[in-house]
Amino acid sequence: MQRPRSFSRRTVLAQALRAGPAVLAWTLLLPKLAQAGKQLEEPLVDSVRSALSAAIHQSAPPVPAFAQDSTRQHYERWLDSMAERLHRRKADALEHKEFLPTVWYESKRAGLDVALVLGLIQVESNFRKFAISSAGARGYMQVMPFWTRLIGDGDPGTLFHMQTNLRFGCVILRHYLDTENGDVFMALGRYNGSRGQRAYPDAVLAARRTWEL
After folding, report:
1. What are residue 25's phi and psi, to 5 degrees?
2. Does 96 have pLDDT greater than 80?
3. CATH class (in words) of the domain with range 9-211
4. CA angle, residues 113, 118, 123, in degrees to nearest 5
5. What's CA 122's distance to the chain center, in Å?
6. pLDDT confidence of residue 62
7. Which of 194, 164, 99 minimizes the C-alpha distance to 203?
């Protein structure tokens, strides 16, 4: 199996120099390279590829609607609590207003525990939108660019878009959970490209506790 192409920060800067001053200026503002995000490209049967592609291309999230006041109040308490915790890591309050509802929506949409997804994001990118790993994975959930070719539109640049990145990450994690018959430990290992090893799943599960309501 071909290994994912490795990108160092020096490589990214060199590419930016060739691209022009505007791209270079943007690149210099990027956070340091992330250390996680090494999903391995594996063959997908047509039915799985079609299902994942359909999940990626569905419409944007609606404004949350709740049948019961208690459910709405629980969601509002969750937003307030998570915003306070996230503020300690990211001071941009405006980004919180978009990020947290989108994490909640994409997690629920994929049938995932929101605290698990937030724990994964913490370990993968430490909540950095433009993080890039040494393997070339991108964004909050450190999605490998090959996924845009397999189930997306083929443009890896879209992985720096907040909702696109969170949607890809949640759909991929759901796929790995299904592949591993619901085994969270093994699914997390597969997400990181370290299936069967303890370090990454243990780190995510520990971080998950930070985001439990």
Report:
1. -60, -40
2. no
3. mainly alpha
4. 125
5. 10
6. 73
7. 194
pLDDT tier for residue 89 given thresholds of 50, 70 and 90: confident
Contacts of 89 (CB under 8 A, 6+ apart): 122, 126, 127
Distance (Å, rounded) from C-alpha 140 to C-alpha 165? 7
The residues that bridge with 132 in the sheet, in sequence order, are 138
Task: Give the whole-angstrom CA distance, residue 74 versus residue 127.
Answer: 24
Handedness of CA 14, 19, 23, 24 (dihedral sign): positive
- Hey, is 145 helix, strand or coil? coil
Does residue 180 carry a pLDDT above 90?
Answer: yes
Domain spans, the chain: 9-211
Q: Which residues pair with 39 in a beta bridge?
A: none
pLDDT of residue 36: 54
pLDDT top residue among 63 and 56: 56
Task: Compute the average pLDDT of residues 153-173.
Answer: 95
**63 φ/ψ sector (left φ>0, alpha ψ -120 to 50, else beta):** beta
Location of structure tokens 């799985």: 48
Work out the average pLDDT over 162-189: 96
> Are 175 and 147 within 8 A, CB to CB?
no
- Tokens 């997804």, located at residue: 117
Q: How far apart are CA 108 and CA 115, in angstroms?
A: 11
